């Protein structure tokens, strides 16, 4: 027997609780919510930014927006993945163009096109044009008095990164707990898998007209896996649904014996390790506005060229996202119509998501 | 140093060799900053309103909004230009519709009888207004720029065309970009070909600065209206420039007109001997527009970086003393 | 089955099989920018406002159909410049993709021959 956890949250009472839930749902998904979350959620928790294998060579980089911040994620000469704000230390100009990890940029340095300040892969300022070294246009300053720019004090702003296997997370907070602490047990589960042996196969990006947390509640509830006798394990910042390898020798197990795993990691990414197909996917939810979310789904398979079964998997999961998008949009319309529904459904994962959103909002 | 922590910024140092020589970034990005500036900057200093030649005849007027105040600038029956709030105390309504100087209207003096008068003064044909109760003289704010411009026959030129572009950045970001040329080599490659940057000079005064860009010997610049073999760009705090390119018999003005904290309108006016543009003059305006578009791209990119909120305080270079002056003036205005 | 009103503009990314409908052509451009930023994919119009087709004079097309001409024809229809999305929609009728049109707009702007009286609204100089 599976140990499926069907525990329900405490039932909403028929008195004032419903109304206060509705009030809090409006606060958590209403017009001002995203601006608050840029600080309280995306400025504080570890956020998935991309896959380390997309930048295997030193100097390769991609960009990723987290809240209002725009990050460059780059592999250094020391082979470490680092992140910097895509903002020049001279006068704050954006430097590199938006560059998706599916088409990474490269080069041994980062240069701002405005005044050609140039940084190395550690973010240190390495060169400035001559006009920053003398005062030839300034009649009131002797070139001898010119201040020197310092490679570190005038370097780029470092952003904390850490990884779970090849999955790179960034944190914009001042003094965050470790990534391992946030991701919890899922980190061990994921790190025990050979995720780095897989290649990026497809990226599918779509948009849904609802709050990102509403879509997370609908789409990341793990119901598909749970319906198939998966076990739900709720952690501090997310949950995992797994199918135990029950050794019944059923024919749809993967040849390598790995069981299906679905991990939701607060705030906005899920990792789905498939059962019938040898591969996994990440789905990241990027809020575009309080009522619009961009879904970035990346599929990884043994080989970058997709087999028919892999193509079919992409099709069916895309279809499932589209169906969930419609459900989420309907639920949003219901909320706007004054329904007393809360952020998610009444089940355990919906309650967890509400708790996490509330916790961030209270902090 | 470059400061990335918002809590650790300092006010602009008057010494350009100090690492805190730039205005803290929040003064560019805070959504409320323009509200403050309406009072502290646009409510205090002389602000360019328009060109007297566009209202040459008695009774002609144009309107202009400064901060939140809509003004009517009108040529009186005595030949003098006066300015009024576009609001009648008697009717509680605006007196006239919005009317740009490029499409000047006519209004009777009696209609403005109940409207409050606003200070106006001029440099040659350039009309300035001041909303403060007790302003410094325009001559003081403009300094030597006043004598220099009045020595030129600016009034002999007619308005040729106006191009108004909306740009996605704080107005001071464009003002800073206009004021330095450390970005020119990399970003204005066509224009820089005719300029000897090493012989050029950026002159800074109390409330204005002049960019003297020396033409190289190859450039045919006989058409210029000023003496020196150079292009001369004058910036007058807070948001006016007059541009003498040296390669056309005419000049241009910019109003860097804030819409809100994150947007401004660049109102570019071009003046030539004759109001109708010749083919060469059109080509000249197109070239000037090319420079503008190149700068718009730079300032919008700078804005994209600034509004992420990552940077707290920039650090200016030794030849950005003009930008430094701009930042100091803004700081002084906020702190006043 | 209820009658559904279709917004006058729609676009899709064939690679991702996703689409967007909108009343405002510039929202299609915003969608393209968001989508392109993370995928590099182009986006194609699948429906454009019929009124837009009428605004662009078909008779002149063969001779003068450059992007600047389209802007010049469309800007008369709008108070403060032709929405860049409307220009892109008109160009898509001639087989130019949204991404290609935006690139060409940028190139012409950089020559000074197009300008934006309002953000993402174009006028020819």
The low-confidence runs of chain C, each spanning 5 or more residues with pLDDT under 50, are none
Residues in helix, % of chain C: 40-55%
Mean pLDDT of chain C: 89
Radius of gyration of chain B, in angstroms, nearest whole number: 20 Å
CATH third-tier fold name of the largest domain in chain B: Naphthalene 1,2-dioxygenase Alpha Subunit, Chain A, domain 1
Largest sheet of chain B: 7 strands, antiparallel
| Tally of contiguous helical segments of chain C | 6
Major sheet of chain C: order of its strands?
2-1-3
Give a quick set of tags describing it:
heterotrimer; A: 363 residues; alpha+beta; Rieske Iron-sulfur Protein; Naphthalene 1,2-dioxygenase Alpha Subunit, Chain A, domain 1; 2 domains; seven-stranded antiparallel sheet; six-stranded antiparallel sheet; 8 helices; 16 strands; disordered N terminus; B: 336 residues; 9 helices; globular; WH-like_DNA-bd_sf (chain C); HVO_B0008-like_C (chain C); HVO_B0008-like_N (chain C); 2 iron, 2 sulfur cluster binding (chain B)
3D architecture notes:
The complex is a heterotrimer of chains A (363), B (336) and C (125). Chain A is an alpha+beta fold and 363 residues long. Chain A has two domains: 48-162, Rieske Iron-sulfur Protein; 194-362, Naphthalene 1,2-dioxygenase Alpha Subunit, Chain A, domain 1, CATH 3.90.380.10. Chain A has helices at residues 17-29, 33-40, 179-183, 185-191, 212-219, 223-227, 308-336, 348-362, and strands spanning 47-51, 61-66, 69-75, 81-85, 110-111, 118-119, 125-127, 158-164, 167-171, 199-208, 231-235, 238-242, 261-265, 269-273, 279-289, 292-301. In chain A, the strands form three sheets. In chain A, strands 10-16-15-14-13-12-11 form a seven-stranded antiparallel sheet, with helices on one face. Chain A has a six-stranded antiparallel sheet with strand order 1-9-8-4-3-2. Chain A has a three-stranded antiparallel sheet with strand order 5-6-7, with no helix packed on it. In chain A, helix 5 crosses helix 7 (308-336) and helix 5 (212-219) runs antiparallel to helix 8. The longest helix of chain A is centred in the last third of the chain and has 29 residues, at 308-336. The radius of gyration of chain A is 23 Å and the shape is globular. Chain B has two domains: 47-135, Rieske [2Fe-2S] iron-sulphur domain (Rieske Iron-sulfur Protein); 154-335, Naphthalene 1,2-dioxygenase Alpha Subunit, Chain A, domain 1, CATH 3.90.380.10. The longest helix of chain B is centred in the last third of the chain and has 28 residues, at 279-306. Chain B has a seven-stranded antiparallel sheet with strand order 1-7-6-4-3-2-5. In chain B, helix 5 runs antiparallel to helix 9 (321-335). Chain B has nine helices and 14 strands. By secondary structure, chain B is α+β, with helices and mostly antiparallel strands. Chain B has helices at residues 26-29, 33-40, 138-142, 144-150, 171-179, 184-187, 189-192, 279-306, 321-335, and strands at 47-51, 60-66, 69-75, 81-85, 105-106, 117-123, 126-130, 158-167, 201-204, 208-214, 230-236, 240-244, 250-260, 263-272. Chain C has 125 residues and is of the alpha+beta class. Helices cover 47% and strands 20% of the residues of chain C. Chain C contains six helices and six strands. Chain C has helices spanning 25-39, 50-55, 58-64, 67-75, 84-92, 98-110; strands spanning 9-13, 18-22, 44-47, 82-83, 114-118, 121-124. In chain C, strands 2-1-3 form a three-stranded antiparallel sheet, covered by helices on one side. Chain C has a three-stranded antiparallel sheet with strand order 4-6-5. In chain C, a hairpin with a 2-residue loop joins strand 5 (114-118) and strand 6 (121-124). In chain C, helix 1 (25-39) crosses helix 5 (84-92). Classes of the chains: A alpha+beta (363), B alpha+beta (336), C alpha+beta (125). The interface between A and B is large, with 41 and 41 residues. Chain C: Residues 72-122 form the HVO-B0008-like C-terminal domain. Chain C: Pfam families: HVO_B0008_C, HVO_B0008_N. Chain C: Residues 11-47 form the HVO-B0008-like N-terminal domain. Chain C: InterPro entries: HVO_B0008-like_C, HVO_B0008-like_N, WH-like_DNA-bd_sf. Chain A: Keywords: 2Fe-2S, Iron, Iron-sulfur, Metal-binding, Oxidoreductase. Chain A: It comes from Natronococcus jeotgali DSM 18795.
